Amino acid sequence: LRFMDLAGVQNLPGVAIAGVLVGISLVAQGMYWLDQLGEQDFVFTVIAVVMIREIAPLVVGLLALGRGGLLILDELSRLRRGGQCRALDLQGIDPFLTLVMPRVLALALSVVGLTMILLVVAFASGYLMGNLLGVAGRTPVEFVAQTFATIGSAGYGVLPLKSLGIGFTIGIVCCLTALEERREPGAERALMPVGFMRAVLAVFLVSGLVSVL
After folding, report:
1. Other beta carbons within 10 Å of 192
2. Please, are residues 125 and 19 in contact by the beta-carbon 8 Å criterion?
3. What secondary structure letter does DSSP report for 138?
4. For the chain, percent helix, then strand, then coil, each to nearest 5?
């Protein structure tokens, strides 16, 4: 619960701002050019599918990495250096189940919830901007109905699966990086950038694999 507050609730302002920016830059501009060029239904479908299946999980994953993943890495690395992980192991308590899994689960659930919030904010802000520009072309009810229809059955499976996968991946990569035994000089100072780069690469890998499959 503490970590869901840190990685989820306290990430809400950043996710809301990102949702507004994505909505204005993608949805509203898409609606504007649709109004200019025609083919509204087809292009809107492309924009909605790309944002729902690709952009939203990636944006939230990167935000969660900065706010949650690196926090996991810092906490666990300090626990390892302080000997708490070894002490738990000597008491017969698995550090992985005690320290790692609660944080990974909290981060994964937070990413799913934040992704849904970002999508709602993005589509709402995009529609409002399109309405201000006079290119919305649909009532709010029609816009919402078309958006849900555009997602499709595959989208309803891909979105939560990708969000969960990205959250789990960030958590696991950061935890394993933090718990690695590093003996070379200066290794501890490089822990943050190493964990960050590993997690970013893993996020893009998981996102691509889920999209392909």
Report:
1. 16
2. yes
3. S
4. 85, 0, 15
**CB count in 10 Å sphere of residue 193:** 9
Can you tell me which residue has the tokens 């290119």?
135
For the chain, 213 residues long, give each residue's pLDDT as a single digit of tens.
Answer: 888 888 888 888 999 999 888 888 776 666 666 666 655 555 566 677 777 888 889 999 999 888 888 888 888 888 888 888 788 878 888 877 888 888 899 999 999 999 999 988 988 887 787 777 776 666 777 777 767 776 666 667 788 888 999 999 999 998 888 887 665 655 566 778 888 898 999 999 998 888 888
Task: Match 């520009």 to its residue by tokens.
Answer: 133
Other Cβ atoms within 10 Å of 204 Cβ, number: 15
Put simply, whether the predicted model's pTM sits higher than 0.85 gets the answer: no
